[in-house]
Amino acid sequence: MLGRAARPDAPAPEVLFTLERVSAPRVASKGNNNVDEPGAFPSREWLRQLLVGKTVKFHTRKQGATAGDRVYGFLFVPNPNDSNAPAWNVAVESVRRGLSTPKLYGEGKEGETTEGDDPEGDEYVRQLELAYNSAKNESAGIHSANPPPLVRHVKNAVDDFLPTDLVHLALAKKQKIQVVLEYIFDGSRYRCHVKDDSPVFAAFQYCNFTLILAGVTCPRVANPRTDPPTPGEPFGQEARSFVEQRLLQREVYLTLHGTDKSCSCIVGTVHHPKGSIAVELLKRGYGKIMDWTARMMDALDLPALRVAENSAKVRTNIILTRTFTLISFFDPHYLPFTNYQLSRSLFTEDQHWSMGNLQTPSAIHRSVAARPSGRSAY
Question: Is beta strand 266-271 parallel, antiparallel or unpaired with respect to 207-213?
Answer without folding.
Answer: parallel
